[in-house]
Structures are given as C-alpha cells and as structure tokens.
Amino acid sequence: MPQLITAISNSIAVYGANSSKNKERSSSFWWRCASDKDTGYSYNYSLAGVKKASPDDKVEDARKVKKGPVVLTRHELKEQLQHDAFRDNVDVAVDYVATHRRQVIRWSSIALAIAIIAGVSYGVYQFRKSQREQALQAAMAIVEAPVEPKPDGFGKTFTTQQAKDDASMKALSEVAAKYSGSGQGDAAQYMLAGIQASNSKYTEAERNFKAVADSNSEYSALAKIGLAQLYAGQGKNQQAKTILENLVAHPTPMVSKEQATLLLAGVVKDTDPKRAKQLAESLKIPTERAAVERAAGQIATDAK
Q1: Which of 85, 222, 228, 286 has the most CB atoms around it within 10 Å of its CB?
Q2: Which residues contact residue 222 at a Cβ distance below 8 angstroms, ignoring those fewer than 6 apart?
Q3: In which domain, by residue range, is 119 found?
C-alpha cells in the first residue's frame, strides 16, 4: 500500500509540473475544424473559443480535433426553416420601388399610355374596317339585285339591265373612291372595271383594271386577267399575251397556272395555233381536273 501511495504522489507531481502547458488542451473540447479556402487560414472551433492558425502552423495534437459538418444553433435552424425565397424576392421588389419611386411611376405611366394608344388604335381600325365592309356589302346588294320588268315589291330589283348597271357603277365608284387602297376599295374598283368593260366603257375599264393590277391587293391577279381579256377583245393580242405569260410563270392563289395557260392558249390560237395546241395538250393529263381537261381539248380542236 505505501508503494501505491508513492506512485500516485509522483504522478500528481508530474501532472502539476505540466499543468500550465496542458491547461488550454485540458480545459477545451475541440469539436470542429474548417478551412477558409480564400485566405488559406484554418480555424479550430471549440467550446472555449476560436483559434486561428496560418497555413504553416501545425495544429498541436490534431488527434483531439474532431472534424464534422457545420452544426447550426436552434435559432439558426429556425431561421433556415422559416426562409421563404418568394417573400425575399417580393421584399427586394418593394425595396426597389421604394428607392426608385419616381422612375417606377414614370415608366409605369409610359407603359399605360402605350397600352391605351394601342387599344384605341385597334378599336378604330376595327370600326373603320366594319364601315368599309358595310359599304361594299351595300354596293354588292345592288350588283346582285335581279332584273324584273314587273317588280313584285319584295327586295331590291331593277326593271332593265342598263338601269341596274348604272346603279352598280355609281355605288362601286363611291366605295372605290372613298376607301381607295384598302381591300374593300380594290374589290369595288375591280368589279367596277368589269361592268364598265361590258358597257363598252373601255378607257375607264382599262384605267381601273390597271390600278388594281399594279397594287399589292389580293385582287391584283384577277385584275390582270380582266385587263388581258380587255386587250384581247380589242385585238391587242401581244399585250394580252405578255400579261398571261407572266401569270403562267407566277401563279397566285387567285389565278392558278392552269387558268392562265388556258387563257393564253385561247388568245394565241388564231395567230399561233401550233403553240395554242401545245399549251392545251400540256393540260390534257389524267391528274388535271375534268373541267380543265375538257377546256384544253376544245382549244386543241379549235387550233387545228
């Protein structure tokens, strides 16, 4: 027993001699080690505080340093759980508006003014379009009215064809003049030229056909057909042929290549029957429509 007491006493004496050196290590429990990649310094976290060491320093007794993930306090964890990205974005937007209130009001006013102008412009466009369509429909009601020597009193009628043509030309002229450049105006001018041509008003008809033919209207190709037929009727076959050849090379949704080819064959059959027959024969194929094939066969027969 005395020997045991002596051994314990010696151990206490040695520990007391080294206590000042081991004080920091014995009173602290090191539980995490992290590195700052930007600065190159390492940080040792403990219950006693934070120890900062340079990259060249060696952490004494590294075996007592316990590495692990970042541990959040209860308050930090609560803040993370209550974090709302949408609310943060709203807060940022509110802060921006509050800071730039004058600019926000100015640009909002400009955007509102642009929206109002666009809405008003669209409304005006639709209203004017409706007016043009109503005017064209009223003129078409006259063009399509029946001729009855003894009217029965129901609907619009005319006692003679001439009376109907005169009223039609007057109505279409008003629409074409008032709405010139619009689709409805071009349609009225094209139909006006056709009625003028049938009433031997060739100069007026040519002028109106040309005006529509030279436009970008969807009725342009139809006006070119009307002009070619007008020239052919006057014996101006070369002018008619030039127009029709252009349509054969550049067909449109309104005038197909087959239609233009048939008309061209009809124009040249008296002056160049061989070419007329070739044009007609090119359309006499099974894939063509029956009406086109019959018309082509008739032209080929007439051209012999």
Answers
A1: 228
A2: 190, 212, 254, 255
A3: 85-131
